[in-house]
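Quick one:
INPUT:
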């Protein structure tokens, strides 16, 4: 019985020794490191593309918000007085420049174009004219925004344009105002403040 146990121990030791020698002679060790080095530039390029694409998307949204604000402000001026064309154009430029767009903060004055005209609801078209205008079209562009990673490939800056049209009439509108009278509004005189601010 002792001889059999000794023989099994020797066989087990030989097996472990063979397994170690096989691992030591395995030529595939370190292959993942080489693959990582080869794929690293691709991963970095994907991250760089995502960052620059997100930057462009953000600026386009910001310039569009600024243009929308300018057209709404100008159209409200025309609703009060269709002849106040100069005031409408000034309001459009002012509200566009009040919105932050990209790293340049504000849109340059020369990059803003304002037109007044007639909007046709049936054909969904805008015709620039100063005779009884009922709509405003605003175009703005923010240029010279720097890339983060695309500069490696020779692309240093980009621009984002936006345009919007707003129309309206001077007819009266029905507005419904809903006040929150729940228990949470009973603190610090919130309900009284809402009632005082609401139009009669």
């Amino acid at each position: 019985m002792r001889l059999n146990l000794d023989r099994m121990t020797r066989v087990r030791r030989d097996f472990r020794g063979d397994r170690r020698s096989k691992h030591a002679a395995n030529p595939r060790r370190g292959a993942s490191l080489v693959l990582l080095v080869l794929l690293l530039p691709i991963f970095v390029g994907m991250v760089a593309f995502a960052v620059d694409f997100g930057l462009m998307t953000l600026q386009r949204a910001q310039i569009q918000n600024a243009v929308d604000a300018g057209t709404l402000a100008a159209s409200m001026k025309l609703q009060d007085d269709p002849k106040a064309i100069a005031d409408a154009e000034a309001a459009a430029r002012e509200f566009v420049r009040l919105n932050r767009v990209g790293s340049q903060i504000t849109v340059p004055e020369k990059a803003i174009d304002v037109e007044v005209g007639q909007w046709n609801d049936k054909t969904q078209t805008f015709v620039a004219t100063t005779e009884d205008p009922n709509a405003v079209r605003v175009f703005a562009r923010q240029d010279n925004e720097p890339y983060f990673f695309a500069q490696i490939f020779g692309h240093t800056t980009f621009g984002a344009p936006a345009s919007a049209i707003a129309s309206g009439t001077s007819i009266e509108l029905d507005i419904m105002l809903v006040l929150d009278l729940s228990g949470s509004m009973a603190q610090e005189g919130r309900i009284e403040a809402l009632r005082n601010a609401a139009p009669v």
